[in-house]
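Complex 179.
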Amino acid sequence: MIKTGILLVLGCFTVSVFSADPHYIGTDKCAKMCHKGEKKGRQYEIWQKSKHAGAFTTLANEKSREVATKMGIKGDPQKAPECLRCHVTAFGVKKELVDPTCTNEEGVGCEACHGPGSEYRKLNNMKSHDLAVAAGLWEPNEAVCVKCHNKESPTYKPFTFKEEVKKDAHLIPGKAAKK
Ligand code: HEC
Ligand code: HEC
Ligand code: HEC
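Predicted structure with heme C bound:
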């Protein structure tokens, strides 16, 4: 709806900016070259060490098999939609909107919290936060987290946004958190 509004107001210009619905490009495309290193705030390095990066791998371990069996899930948890929906970046998204570079293997990647990146990654949109948001960047707030951190998780641990968000913090140096 919002998008239609923008299209009407700005006409052709917007068409050239939003070539299509944003699609998921995968963590490596966001961060392997750009969002890494001391000056940028080490987003890639911090994510790689986080539990999120291992979320798909977790589904292959003993505990996952036990959890799945208890829930009556037959077969491999790494192939079970009941598990994948919270353990990978873009579960349930239309195939056309997920590039082959965004794989289940990356676990819960950048775009699980920041939204599909194909449009906001463009240089002209990365110049400002507002432009990036207009191109699909999400505000990674509590609502984003609790899509997965909720009681439907078979191993649910109480989730307090204020505390949990500090754990893998990766702000750009010199910028203060918005919340
Ligand atoms: C797409 C689903 C998803 C989203 C969105 C998500 N998480 Fe997670 N999170 C997970 C999964 C799955 C794990 C467990 C990974 C594992 O242990 O293999 C996890 C683990 C964590 C952990 C580590 C907990 C521990 O036991 O050490 C923290 C901290 C965390 N998440 C914080 C957040 C915050 C803060 C947000 C929102 C800004 C968020 N998560 C958004 C799925 C998600
Ligand atoms: C679990 C959710 C989650 C994941 C995964 C995640 N982020 Fe973030 N990211 C956040 C949150 C929350 C903030 C802080 C937002 C704020 O307070 O302004 C943030 C902030 C940022 C910022 C700073 C924005 C600013 O204005 O200072 C950048 C850049 C960023 N993330 C890039 C990345 C990249 C690149 C990846 C993947 C390597 C990634 N993030 C993975 C949740 C996440
Ligand atoms: C609603 C989202 C959601 C679903 C569905 C989900 N998980 Fe998770 N899972 C999480 C989150 C969030 C965490 C980290 C915090 C927690 O345990 O609540 C996690 C953590 C885990 C852990 C690590 C827990 C630990 O204490 O070491 C295992 C193992 C796991 N999940 C297996 C599974 C399996 C197997 C399935 C499918 C049967 C599944 N999960 C379905 C969200 C989910």
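The radius of gyration is 18 Å.
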